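Record 1 of the preview.
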Amino acid sequence: MKTRDLWILLTYVIIQYSAVFGVPYLLNSNLYVGVDRKTASLEAVALWGCISFITGLIIILILLHKPIYEGFKNLSSNYRKIINWVVLGYFITMLTQIICNLILIYVFNLHQGSENTHNILKIAKLNPAFIIIPSLIAPILEEIVFRRILFKSLYKRLPFTVSAIISSVLFAFMHGDLPFFLSYFLIGFVFCYLYKRTNSILVPMLTHMLMNSFVVFQQINFSSLH
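->
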């Protein structure tokens, strides 16, 4: 693994755990004077999430400036292929989610929604700007980390299935929503396949963005009706 990739992984880990220090710092500042503790906590999580994820994304994009430049140079010659695979990938991931949800309902009798999604909605209602994190920024970061770095590094030494399984297990565990582990795992596996099949990280990245955006806005619309 390249030194650059190690720096990217370190940046991603810091993003994920920086809230442990960042959120208390914001709560102890003068930003939330007069706001009840529960609301202040959610608003602090939203604000720190925006700060940490946007900062982390900028750092990672700077580290990847050369591959990004090369990718944009080649984009004009294969953009139709990318669009076709993104559309196909989107429908595959949505179908995967539907099947996993049916399994959870009819096999495991689990009728509650994803806690991860529920928490995102609570935060987004207080700070709508937070929506860009799960819809746009998180998919970019996750595809860079779990597909472009982890899966690609493993695939150089191991068969595709083994590499995709390891990457997808880590991807699922990272979300910390164990009842929906199978859903995250299978979606991660699909993203690995899309990356391998097209040799373009843009395909799983854009597919991931579309999927997350649809889920987030669907849930926001659903909650506004109740």
